[in-house]
Amino acid sequence: MLDTAHLLFPTTFPAISRGKIDTLQVNLGYLCNQSCTHCHVNAGPKRTELMDRETVDQVLEFLEQQQVSTLDLTGGAPEMNGEFRYLVTEARALGVRVLDRCNLTILEEIGYETLAEFLAVQGVEVVASMPCYLKENVDHQRGKGVFQASIAGLQRLNRWGYGIEGSGLVLNLVFNPQGPNLPPPQGALEDDYKQKLKEGYGIEFNQLFTITNMPISRFGSMLLSKGQFDDYLALLKSSFSPTNLDTVMCRNLLSVDWQGYVYDCDFNQMLKMPVAHDQRERIHLRELVHTDITDWPIRIGEHCYGCTAGQGSSCGGALAE
Ligand code: SF4
Ligand code: SF4
Question: Which domains does the chain have, with CATH numbers?
Fold first, then answer.
């Protein structure tokens, strides 16, 4: 795989600093039942890195002490970590809103038959990758058979009440472009998705989040190998929208890797750019349990333009909707 990290520095991106943390985004490990071409964590079935119980308990202590309102679980497929159900149950008992970034196909894997029920009983919000409503595009980006399994996963979630009005169970979908272009307007694409998924498969969901691909990891490597890296970065920079600077997700989110080290966001985590402060090169979550990190500077690079281009991009979709 080609590495783009050295092409992201120095940067002209404006200096930004942290606000109060409202979301702890925790990467439970790189194990996944899929290996998608755009995956920015290079997850796959052979990865062995997984968060252990001790670190999971430190996550819970941090949530409680810092009164963080949202726990956002990611991976890999976070549900494949053996501590997943323990973490979710304990966090919900603390009154924390829990998001599961679910690839949908995991719901159809052998051994995960009770996952949808568990998520529903716990009131976990599901954020599910669905790069298109067309079979050809999904299978091209995420692998053969992924579309059919994703549809089955969505129908299963609907049966448990997810995405159904009045159920209180939230099902949001995530779109990211196939190639080196910005996502289309989020609202219009959501209307298309709702119509196509309802008509074709009887599927309902709450919101569609559009997310801009970052020029790093597997997607960055693909750009480099096709000679498209410079043009894509130029597109992100020329589409810079300063109004998005106040709402980029790193202002209020702290990202934690499978070992418990902290980053300003998931992308910085993949670039191995941990939060650095007081001459410490990297900081563990347990060191911050009683520390207020408001106003700490955020580590930036050229990839940050991916968050501010056009309508903006975050784990919760467009910033300027
Ligand atoms: S499903 Fe998600 S975590 Fe797994 S390989 Fe695909 S993009 Fe990566
Ligand atoms: S890439 Fe990360 S650090 Fe940079 S603006 Fe986006 S969220 Fe913030």
Answer: 5-308 (3.20.20.70)
